[in-house]
Design a protein that fits this description.
102 residues, mainly alpha, 2 helices, 93% helix, elongated
Amino acid sequence: MSDRDGNSLGWFLAGLGLGAVVGVLYAPRSGSETREVLRARAEEGREFVRNQARVAREQATDWVDRGRDVVSAQKEQFRAAYEAGRQAYHEATTETAAPKNS
């Protein structure tokens, strides 16, 4: 199996080299023009990645803010339910305890 994998890698590299040679021989532009096009495309790609990173950062910030709001609302609901239960328990224990003391 490892012989077959090594052989496949060798053929792949040979094909890659052959493709590079053919590409250089049949290139429609001169070397300086090709480099300039590649440079421009690289800059476009860089700007695209920067924009996507900015958008992702903004989305992450929005999600964090929403998460904080949800957690805060849940805390308030829990606190209100806890206080209501505590008050109900207090009222129930004072009502049942009052007749026994009379």
